[in-house]
Amino acid sequence: NPENWHQLAAVYLQQGKKKEALDQLTLAREKAVPFREQDTVLLADLQAVNGTPYGAAVILDSALSNKGVQANGLNYRKLFQFWLQAREKEKASAALVQAARLSGDIELYLYLAQLQMEQEAWRPMYQTMQAACRNQLPGKYVSRSNLLLGISQLKLGDKASARRSFINATLIGGAGAEA
């Protein structure tokens, strides 16, 4: 009975026995016990909590690919965090692109642009900032957004636009000194 497997894992969790809950769900998965979306996400979370972020990422990535979990911003953000903890930067970046696109969360766009800047991926960084700035930004993100946009424009050779972005970064918010 699939429900019994999941209830046993829940009991272990209530007792604070995360390793036992992980073992139970892993065994259930190996025995082809049907998993609901929340069971799959719990299995991935338990992998991460028990020190195996790579395993967590593989489980969640597979579930997203097979439509075992919903492809939404929240699940892709979680996948990004797992890949990042596993030190898989390219996979983390790909998951972050999906999370930002699906959620529209400006913080994710800014984090993605920061990663792209570290990788010196100027064109993707510029495109990320263009996507982030399509909607009106909350005031607390305007300065940082203009700064990142200006950096990408400068690195792509558009000095006039970069100058405008840097000026805008100094006018509103806290990135004036960096600009």
Report on this model:
It is a single chain. With 179 residues, this protein is mainly α. Helices cover 75% and strands 0% of the residues. The chain has helices at residues 2-14, 18-30, 37-49, 53-65, 73-85, 89-103, 106-118, 122-132, 139-155, 159-171. Helix 4 (53-65) packs antiparallel against helix 5 (73-85), helix 7 (106-118) runs parallel beside helix 9 (139-155) and helix 8 runs antiparallel to helix 9 (139-155). The chain is elongated, with a radius of gyration of 20 Å. The mean pLDDT is 90.
Question: Can you give keywords for this protein?
Answer:
179 residues; mainly alpha; elongated
Short description:
The chain has 179 residues and is mostly helical. The protein has helices spanning 2-14, 18-30, 37-49, 53-65, 73-85, 89-103, 106-118, 122-132, 139-155, 159-171.
**Strand element count:** 0
Q: What is the mean predicted local confidence, pLDDT?
A: 90
Rg (CA only):
20 Å
Low-pLDDT ranges: none
The secondary-structure element order is HHHHHHHHHH
Shape descriptor: elongated
